[in-house]
Design brief:
alpha+beta; nine-stranded antiparallel sheet; about 35% strand; Pnp Oxidase, Chain A; 5 helices; about 25% helix; 9 strands; about 210 residues
């Protein structure tokens, strides 16, 4: 089959005009809960896009670890490519895609570092070997081989046999603070539902977009 012939006629859900909540954050919570209850693989996975100092975008999948009225929390190496981009340009976007539910949520906003206490709490909750990887990995930098990475990991374990060490300064959390959120529900005949919320000085303003 040719790629151009691949298509799905969606029809698992709908968004009715009379059902639109005032607060998009509550709606995201509902959709995420449905994705989790359906046991979707890594339902908290989201595509994070950042922009370089020169305006070049890049994207990768990260995991949502918490969210509230403030925004969306994820963790990474501050010295990684995305970390360096955030320093120069804090604009970012997130994309959740749950194909089994024929849904996606697109989020735009500014990114800022999370409080040290939040980063500490999550770091120390992680399994030992995940903490070691965070401590030793020069994320996004060139390494000579897989063997080099594994040796760095094992050497660090050998240096800390009791598994006790502090969160490294180069690793922690970020919040994406949303100013635009769009909900997408697949519909038949490509007449998809798209509901957009944009933040203003009074709260959230919503509208329906053409698919």
């Amino acid at each position: 089959m040719e790629l151009r012939d691949l298509r799905i006629n969606y029809g698992k859900g709908s968004i009715q005009d009379g059902e639109l909540p005032e607060n998009p954050m509550e709606w995201i919570g509902d959709w995420l809960a449905e994705a989790l209850s359906a046991s979707l693989h890594e339902a908290n996975a989201m595509v994070l896009s950042t922009v370089s100092e020169t305006g070049s975008p890049s994207s990768r999948v990260v995991l949502l670890k918490a969210f509230d009225e403030k925004g969306f929390l994820f963790f990474t190496n501050y010295e990684s490519r995305k970390g360096r981009q955030i320093v120069h340009n804090p604009a970012g976007s997130l994309l959740f895609f749950w194909p089994e539910l024929e849904r996606q949520v697109r989020i735009e906003g500014a990114i800022e570092k999370a409080e040290a206490g939040i980063s500490d709490e999550y770091f120390y909750s992680r399994p030992l070997e995940s903490r070691v990887s965070a401590a030793v990995s020069p994320q996004s930098m060139i390494v000579s081989s897989r063997a080099e990475l594994e040796k760095m990991h094992q050497d660090y374990l050998d240096e800390h046999p009791d598994g006790t060490f502090e969160r490294p300064d180069h690793w922690g959390g970020y919040w994406l603070l949303p100013n635009l959120i769009e909900f997408w529900q697949g519909r038949r005949n490509r007449l998809h539902d798209r509901i957009q919320y944009q933040r203003n000085e009074l709260g959230w303003e919503r509208c329906r977009l053409a698919p």
